[in-house]
């Protein structure tokens, strides 16, 4: 950060233009993060030093959801993406906590139904939503955890056990 540069986004109209200016100084950074690209559903893991090359066709756009990878109980690396079928996937995640009283657990409080996704370096043993055990998917090639949250769920509590 140079403490003086601003992020500028601009576009021209037929008879004028529009510009958005953002002061992003001091926004911080994460040691590692998981990024979901909405247009393709691709998940990418980046370290603090890495960047992501993005190309868009003329008049196209894309939305990216990012979630920090946090280490829980010195073993589990976890990053909740949220409801992957939504543009603002992370907006469904309201809180994330971990506990190790009887094994390692991740607790997530959220809202809305749909396809929930997260990065996890380890395959969970079980997952429950509102105290009901549900089946989940885990893709070992890229460590993606997924579970369908019932559409009728306006709010939910998820517990992932390792």
TrEMBL record:
<keyword id="KW-0119">Carbohydrate metabolism</keyword>
<dbReference type="InterPro" id="IPR008811">
    <property type="entry name" value="Glycosyl_hydrolases_36"/>
</dbReference>
<protein>
    <submittedName>
        <fullName>Uncharacterized protein</fullName>
    </submittedName>
</protein>
<dbReference type="Pfam" id="PF05691">
    <property type="entry name" value="Raffinose_syn"/>
</dbReference>
């Amino acid at each position: 950060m140079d403490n003086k540069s601003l992020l500028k986004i601009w576009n021209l109209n037929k008879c004028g233009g529009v510009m958005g200016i953002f002061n992003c100084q001091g926004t911080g950074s994460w040691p590692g993060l998981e990024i979901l690209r909405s247009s393709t559903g691709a998940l990418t893991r980046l370290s603090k030093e890495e960047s992501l090359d993005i190309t868009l066709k003329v008049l196209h756009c894309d939305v990216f959801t990012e979630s920090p990878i946090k280490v829980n109980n010195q073993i589990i690396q976890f990053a909740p993406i949220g409801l992957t079928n939504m543009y603002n996937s992370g907006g469904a995640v309201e809180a994330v906590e971990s506990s190790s009283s009887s094994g390692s657990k991740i607790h997530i409080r959220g809202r809305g139904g749909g396809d929930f996704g997260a990065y996890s370096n380890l395959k969970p043993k079980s997952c429950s939503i509102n105290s009901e055990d549900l089946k989940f998917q885990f893709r070992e090639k890229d460590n993606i955890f997924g579970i369908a949250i019932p559409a009728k769920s306006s709010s939910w509590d998820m517990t992932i056990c390792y």
